[in-house]
Design goal:
It is a single-pass membrane protein. One of its GO terms (molecular function) is ATP binding. By secondary structure, the chain is an alpha/beta fold. It folds into two domains: 169 residues, Leucine-rich repeat, LRR (right-handed beta-alpha superhelix), CATH 3.80.10; 270 residues, Orthogonal Bundle (Transferase(Phosphotransferase), domain 1), CATH 1.10.510.10. The protein contains 18 helices and 23 strands. The strands form six sheets. A six-stranded mixed sheet has the order 1-2-4-7-10-13, with no helix packed on it. A six-stranded antiparallel sheet has the order 16-20-21-19-18-17. A four-stranded parallel sheet has the order 8-11-14-15, covered by helices on one side. The two termini are 34 Å apart. It binds adenosine-5'-triphosphate (ATP). The site of adenosine-5'-triphosphate (ATP) has 24 residues, from strand 17, strand 18, strand 19 and helix 12. Adenosine-5'-triphosphate (ATP) binds next to strand 17, strand 18, strand 19 and helix 12.
């Protein structure tokens, strides 16, 4: 049975007080410490929060915790295997602005949230959990609330969110009428509930009519008809005569026909008018889901389109932030920017030469990438594609890239032997494979392709996890010919991979033309990275006189690389299979 969260709070407080001396207690850096430790004690059976140790949650090493002036202001713990009912502890943090707990197995109710309890809360993401209970949230400050795919129930009258810009409560058990204040959100925000009605869903009268119909045709009435009947408007269908029903039917048919004609007309117009290069019509740019109007968003944020976790970013602040160059690549330059509130981001300024205007296709792609959230993928928090400026704002990965680990200067080489041992290499390869597999299986149509897998796009986060960066960007570059130049197929890939292939290593099928990258060509490039890591390990072993302890594993891993780099795309494994194969060596 799940214990109440205050039990864990008292327990960890007791634990803390009993293991630290009064002097150490005086070193407690933040009043947020106890709730966080209590949450960890309750919600983290798999040890994902292993870095939550010590007395200072704002030390920078606590995974998912962001601070400002020694107070916790944001928590990002998506996909973290968290369980149980301790979420209210996090909601109790006095300065919290952003809480993101998507895709866990958390299951508490969410008690009353008001200006008194959470005056600073701006963004709350609880989607894909098992939260339940009714919602009572009266927070004028809240800008986004994502709670889709949970077990919340009851009516929506407890939601008073006047400034809300982004709402999704779909796929819960809500019933009743959608209030006027919430009806500005799209259908997708409400679909999949037990019995919601009213704009933007069908009117409560229509729902009542449907439920009456189903009651008439079925001898045993179902839950939804009963709940609709009890929660929606009580006006009776008998008020409508047959003529009115006929009129509604004809009206519906007319509206559907007109909409169809408009959609078909638009489609033909777009095909004729838009100057989309032929390669991009077959590429990853066509149908990517989004519920928003891009231009509208850009205007609101002064040209910056923000995604989850980047809602507080402003173009003005970014441009004013103190910045340091992290590196320069074919696609542009990347800077580390320290914002006013101490938050650090990596800003990539795309080269105007490489990225001429692609308008909405670029925007659509960025919207899909902005939804990627995984511990092995660098999160895109915002981007700007306005006034000739193309900026991508990512989480800053403080430990550099696989490129820098592999190609450190000779002075650093001795140090690297110790830090990049075989175990670390396996972990990095596994993390990168996991991230690429997530990208490949992300539910958008057409499926995503990275198109530029190489060591400098595999970054290392503060906990040493490998994270894939820059998904799909090179597909928009004006000249990818140099990138995609492929020499004749090497006879011994294992050894070829060791030669100075520091950049992207494209698949042979992309040779000699501006090829369209595919998931199979991503697997090839990943295989080349893997072989490079393995080959580098062998070099280091040889030069340092190592004992070749893991020889069997090294050869096994090289075989995975050979499979990935099969000449024919159809002979290469899927990334999910690559993940499984690498995991056998962990
Ligand atoms: N999110 C990030 N956090 C920290 N460092 C980063 C981040 N993104 C990039 N970098 C650093 O900046 C360097 C330059 O990256 P950039 O993406 O601009 O070029 P590249 O990857 O070398 O080439 P390309 O332009 O083909 O992607 C990288 O090697 C990496 O060390």
């Amino acid at each position: 049975m799940a214990l109440p969260y205050y039990y864990y709070f008292s327990f960890s407080f007791f634990l803390l007080v009993s293991i630290v001396t009064p002097h150490e207690l005086s070193l407690v850096h933040s009043q947020d410490l106890f709730p966080l430790l209590s949450f960890k004690a309750s919600a983290d059976p798999r040890g994902v929060l292993r870095t939550w140790v010590g007395l200072n949650p704002c030390s920078g090493s606590w995974i998912g915790v962001k601070c400002y002036r020694s107070r916790v202001v944001a928590i990002y713990l998506d996909n973290s295997s968290l369980v149980g009912s301790a979420t209210p502890l996090l909601l109790g943090l006095g300065q919290l602005r952003i809480l993101s707990l998507r895709r866990n197995a958390l299951n508490s109710t969410i008690s009353l949230l008001t200006n008194l309890t959470n005056p600073n809360l701006r963004h709350l993401s609880l989607s894909h959990n098992q939260f339940s209970g009714t919602l009572n949230i009266t927070l004028p400050s809240l800008l986004s609330f994502r709670a889709e795919h949970n077990n919340f129930f009851g009516g929506l009258e407890g939601l008073k969110l006047p400034k809300m810009k982004d709402l999704n409560i779909s796929n819960n058990n809500f019933v009743g009428e959608i209030s006027f204040g919430l009806s500005k959100f799209p259908r997708s925000s409400f679909e999949g509930n037990l019995a919601l009605c009213g704009s933007p869903l069908s009117s409560c009268i229509d729902s009542l009519r449907l439920s009456n119909d189903s009651t008439n045709t079925s001898s045993s009435p179902n839950i939804s008809s009963m709940t609709s009947a009890s929660f929606c408007s009580s006006r009776s269908l008998t008020k409508f005569g047959i003529t009115a029903l006929l009129a509604i039917g004809i009206g519906d048919i007319l509206v559907i026909s007109i909409s169809l004609a408009i959609v078909i007309g638009l489609y033909i117009w777009l095909r004729k008018k838009l100057l989309i290069p032929p390669s991009s019509t077959t590429s990853n740019l066509r149908v990517i889901e989004s519920d928003r109007g891009y231009s509208e968003e850009k205007e609101k944020n002064g040209g910056l389109v923000c995604f989850e976790g980047g809602e507080e970013l402003k173009l003005e602040t970014l441009l004013k932030a103190s910045a340091e160059v992290l590196g320069k690549g074919v696609s542009g330059s990347t800077y580390k920017a320290i914002l006013d509130d101490g938050i650090i981001v990596a800003v990539k300024r795309l080269s105007a030469l490489q990225f001429p205007s692609y308008g909405k296709n670029f925007d659509k792609h960025m919207h899909a990438i902005g939804r990627l959230r995984h511990s092995n993928v660098v999160s895109l928090r915002a981007y700007c594609n306005a006034n000739g400026e193309r900026l991508l704002v990512y989480d800053c990965m403080p430990k550099g890239s696989l490129q820098s680990l592999l190609h450190s200067t000779s002075n650093e080489r001795r140090l690297r032997c110790r830090s990049l041992d075989w175990r670390r290499r396996k972990q990095i390869l596994f993390g990168a494979a996991n991230g690429l597999n997530y990208i490949h299986s992300f539910p958008v149509r057409p499926l995503l392709v990275h198109a530029n897998i190489k060591p400098s796009n595999i970054l290392i986060d503060e906990h040493g996890n490998a994270c894939i960066s820059e998904c799909g960007l090179m597909r928009f570059a004006a000249s990818t010919n140099t990138q995609y130049f492929v020499p004749s197929f090497p006879s011994n890939l294992f050894y070829e991979a060791s030669s100075a292939w520091h950049g992207h290593r494209p698949a042979p099928e992309l040779s000699g033309r501006r090829g369209t990258a595919t998931q199979e060509s991503d697997v090839y490039s990943f295989g080349m990275v893997l072989l490079e890591v393995v080959r580098d390990h062998k070099d280091v072993e040889e030069s340092s006189g190592g004992d070749g302890e893991c020889e069997g594993e090294v050869m096994g891993m090289a075989k995975v690389g050979m499979l990935c780099t099969a000449e024919r795309p159809e002979d290469r494994p899927k990334m999910s299979q690559v993940v499984r194969m690498i995991s056998e060596f962990l």
